[in-house]
Each structure stands twice: as C-alpha cells, then as structure tokens.
Amino acid sequence: MIVGKVTGSIVSTRKSEKLIGNKFMIVEPLESMKSHADRLVAIDNIGAGIGEYVLVAQGSAARIGCDMQDAPVDAAIVGIIDDASRLE
C-alpha cells in the first residue's frame, strides 16, 4: 500500500463494462513511496477529492479493497488520510 496525493481526475466514456459507474483519480505517490511511476490512476469508490492524501492498494489487493474481484483494476483508493501534516 502506498500514500499519495490526489492531483486530478480522469473521465473515460468508453471502458470495460465492469468499470462503468466508477470514478478514476490521478494519484501522485509521496516522494518516499515512489517506485517506478510518478503518477498512477486509481479507482475511487470512497469519494476522495483533489488535494486529499489517500491510501492506495495495488494489484490483487486493489480488486479486493474495492470489491471488484473480476474487474481490470490495478490500483484503488481505499482510505482518505485525516492528518497528512507529518507525511511530507
């Protein structure tokens, strides 16, 4: 799981049927948690907003975390951080 900041959203009118009705957000991992990507797209079922710090699950944990085991999901926002003052 990584911690990141929501920097934007993505709209996709054509997508897999299993993704219809879901919101997608652009998340920038904190510097200390970056691996190979500077940003990632995560499905958001909890209502995170731009500028909020979030917890992101990846891989199979993302599908389980958003209760979409059969959907093509690789990253999911699974929590919103209440106080991010010590993170950066």
UniProtKB/TrEMBL annotation:
PROSITE patterns: BMV. GO terms for cellular component: carboxysome. InterPro entries: EutN_CcmL, EutN_CcmL_sf. Pfam families: EutN_CcmL (PF03319). The keyword Protein biosynthesis does not apply. It is found in: Carboxysome. Gene3D superfamilies: EutN/Ccml. Keywords: Bacterial microcompartment, Carboxysome. This is Ethanolamine utilization protein EutN. It comes from Eisenbergiella massiliensis.
